[in-house]
Structure to design on (227 residues):
């Protein structure tokens, strides 16, 4: 089986370079480049104007493998990413060999919140006559907003292990093995712990955001509470 030659990683987070998606993309980029595979990244947020979007859609039709890396927004795919997918579909040309993989991250700790977004990408691959290489789901993705996967230590151990195995297969033009997908998609922490942290730190974060004491008082009002 021949080796993969080129990869384009599309970062679908509206936060662009300051996103967790970017940190996942950087890790994948490094791993493909280590294997001498020509790898580029593109930020969808920088390609929203029609002209720029058309350019990117054209560019996205050439690499052997396209990777969509995006956050989960309202149990779905962010609008800028959907827009890109729709534009690709509208300008679909003669079928040619191309592969698609996706990686989604969500705020909630259970990775399976991302399953629907992954299914949508799989459906996109089928409509575009692309070969579907599989999807990876990451819960509590915000943990990687300002830290790279390499610096994240033990928390990202399974994720790195799964992604390494995924890149190994993809670079040989093979689908991601289900074991690699399962390893990469494991919850970062035992769920009882991440739920505790989310409640504890989430509450502190929201309270910090409400700096106005008058507003803070009102937070406890329950005008529609059923007695
Ligand atoms: C508008 C909006 C909608 C979101 N909807 C969900 C959601 O439905 N489920 C979820 O688990 N997280 C949701 N999140 C959280 C993001 O998926 C999460 O913070 C993710 O790590 C952001 O990734 P990014 O830094 O790559 O953009 C939402 C965040 C925003 C801003």
């Amino acid at each position: 089986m021949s080796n993969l030659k080129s990869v384009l990683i599309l970062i679908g987070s509206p936060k662009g370079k300051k996103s967790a998606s970017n940190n996942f993309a950087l890790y994948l980029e490094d791993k493909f480049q280590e294997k001498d595979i020509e790898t580029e990244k593109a930020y969808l947020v920088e390609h929203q104007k029609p002209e720029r979007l058309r350019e990117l859609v054209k560019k996205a039709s050439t690499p052997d493998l396209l990777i969509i890396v995006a956050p989960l927004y309202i149990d779905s795919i962010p609008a800028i990413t959907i827009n890109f997918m729709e534009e690709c579909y509208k300008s679909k040309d003669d079928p040619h060999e191309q592969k698609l993989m996706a990686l989604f991250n969500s705020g909630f700790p259970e990775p399976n919140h991302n399953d629907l977004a992954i299914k949508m990408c799989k459906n996109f691959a089928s409509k575009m006559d692309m070969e579907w290489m599989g999807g990876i789901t990451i819960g509590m993705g915000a943990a990687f907003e300002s830290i790279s996967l390499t610096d994240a230590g033990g928390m990202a151990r399974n994720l790195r292990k799964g992604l390494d195995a995924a890149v190994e297969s993809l670079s040989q033009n093979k689908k991601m093995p289900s074991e690699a997908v399962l390893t990469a998609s494991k919850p970062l922490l035992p769920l009882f712990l991440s739920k505790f942290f989310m409640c504890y730190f989430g509450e502190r974060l929201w309270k910090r955001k409400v700096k106005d004491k008058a507003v803070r008082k009102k937070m406890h009002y329950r005008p529609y509470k059923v007695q």
